[in-house]
Design goal:
Layout lengths: L5 E5 L3 H13 L3 E6 L3 H10 L3 E5 L5 H13 L5 E5 L4 H9 L2 E6 L4 H22 L11 E6 L7 H14 L5 E6 L6 H5 L7 H7 L13 E3 L4 E4 L4 H4 L4 H12 L4 E6 L5 H8 L3 E6 L3 H16 L7 E8 L7 H8 L3 E6 L2 H9 L3 H4 L4 H13 L8 H4 L12 H12 L1
Parallel strand pairs: 1-2, 1-3, 3-4, 4-5, 6-10, 6-11, 7-9, 7-10, 11-12, 12-13
Antiparallel strand pairs: 8-9
Helix pairs in contact: 2-3, 6-16, 10-11, 12-18, 13-18
The chain binds adenosine-5'-diphosphate (ADP) and magnesium ion (MG).
The site of magnesium ion (MG) has 4 residues, from helix 6.
Length: 415
């Protein structure tokens, strides 16, 4: 983020203004200023040029709403967010008509305020880029994130499950996770849900179903409202072609805002399809020799198959202070930047055993924070600078050069 977004608070109630100032500071925004309604607000907004305007709406609602309307026509690119104690739908509707981007209910959680401000700024930025022709028109299908990796046991399913849960918990998006590991898929187990139907049923019925029918094939993860489409048994997988599965992915992507796909650790027609169809591929590897080596080989195989690779983002998982290999060496060996680092965390393993994604059950753990930040970025949001590439984790550079680095460094040449 270039700078911390600033907010102007517009409210005639001094106590409410004070509470809002606390919330603004608590959630890491900058306070641009504060003022009352009417001309006072118009002058303050023109002078201070805040990134966003927060207007308190109490009874009588006319004056705050007139102020919102005036500010909206004066500064159409500055998102206006309204906060209020009321739950009256008519007031909410009028506030939206007056140009509010969001209606926040009091008492307000700082995190809700932050998410709302960031979402409003994000959508404003996208609108501008779209007008400049730098972004395609809004897509007709949701974002597909394929979690891939050239090996088993590197954390693909863990990352896919936690990412999907975290995405579903971000406001206003519907998310489906598809278990396309045609070995032994374990997303249902990781989320402790019991599917009654699987992808094989959807493949069979695909000609008769449309978006409204998908609910019959998925099972809902109650804590996050994430929908889970499980894979069939390993034997049933054998009778499904990559093309049949692609049709299901197409339908799911036209139904949900975001689709997360978990995959096996094998290069096959099916997994290549999941890479091909993805908006973004999170390529999971650990810093272990075998994992890095297999990733390099798989990158080569995919480029020989002429898959476009710009969408592939490397996620380094289970980074631990005991790791002796520095990120720069890994990046050199992989021939691409590491997009994300997820630390090693015992809580992850416990969560896997219990069928509890740690982004819900241990949100303060280092790995959960990193996974939640990853979800925010995947959803197009922003996080504080510095947290991004380190995933909330500090690398400790090794005191002296270690031979493992030399070994990793030489893989690229050997293979
Ligand atoms: N960041 C991490 N820290 C600690 N353990 C992890 C981490 N990521 C994954 N694990 C553990 O590693 C094991 C394998 O993970 P899994 O997601 O099943 O891998 P894959 O899907 O690539 O085969 C699981 O027991 C999981 O809890
Ligand atoms: Mg797996």
């Amino acid at each position: 983020m270039a700078k911390t977004p600033s907010a102007l608070i517009v409210d005639s109630d001094i106590q409410a203004r004070f509470e809002m100032k606390q919330a603004v500071k608590a959630c890491g925004l900058t306070l641009a200023g504060e003022c009352g309604y009417g001309m006072e607000a118009v002058s303050a907004a023109t002078e201070l040029r805040p990134d966003t305007i927060l207007i308190g709406v109490g009874e009588p609602i006319e004056r705050p709403l007139q102020t919102a309307e005036a500010l909206q026509s004066l500064l159409p690119e500055t998102p206006i967010l309204v906060y209020s104690e009321t739950k009256d739908l008519e007031t909410i509707r009028k506030a939206m008509m007056a140009g509010a981007r969001d209606f926040l209910a009091k008492p307000l959680r700082p995190e809700t305020l932050r998410q709302s401000v960031l979402a409003a700024l994000e959508s404003e930025e996208k609108k501008k880029l779209r007008q400049l022709g730098q972004l395609p028109a809004a897509p007709t299908a949701g974002t597909i994130v394929t979690v891939f990796g050239a090996k088993g046991g590197v954390g693909k399913s863990t990352i896919a499950a936690n990412l999907a849960v975290a995405l579903a918990r971000l406001e206003r998006s519907s998310v489906c996770i598809m278990d396309l590991d045609n070995g032994f898929g374990d997303i249902a187990g990781m989320l402790d849900v019991k599917p009654e139907r699987t992808l094989a049923d959807m493949v069979r019925d695909i000609d008769q179903i449309d978006r409204d029918d998908i609910q019959r094939y998925v099972v809902r993860h109650p804590l996050s409202e994430l929908d889970v489409l499980s894979g069939p048994s390993v034997l049933e997988w054998r009778s499904l072609s990559a093309e049949q599965v692609r049709r299901v992915v197409d339908l799911v992507a036209r139904t949900y805002d975001k689709v997360v796909i978990d995959t096996s650790g094998m290069l096959s027609e099916l997994s290549e399809m999941t890479v091909d169809i993805a908006t973004m591929v999170l390529w999971v590897t650990t810093s272990e020799f075998a994992s890095v080596k297999d990733s390099i080989e798989a990158f080569r195989a995919l480029s020989n198959l002429s898959y476009s690779q710009e969408r592939i983002r490397v996620v380094m998982n289970a980074i631990s202070p005991d790791d002796v290999i520095r990120p720069a060496i890994l990046q050199d060996a992989l021939g691409r930047e590491v997009f994300w680092n997820i630390p090693y965390d015992r809580k992850v393993r416990q969560g896997t055993h219990l069928g509890q994604p740690i982004v819900i059950t241990a949100p303060q753990s280092t790995a959960a924070k990193s996974l939640a930040d990853l979800a925010t970025v995947v959803a197009g949001g922003r996080i504080e600078q510095g947290r991004k590439t380190l995933g909330g984790f500090k690398w400790r550079p090794s005191a002296e050069p270690v031979t493992a680095e030399g070994r990793i460094g030489s893989i690229a040449k050997e293979t």
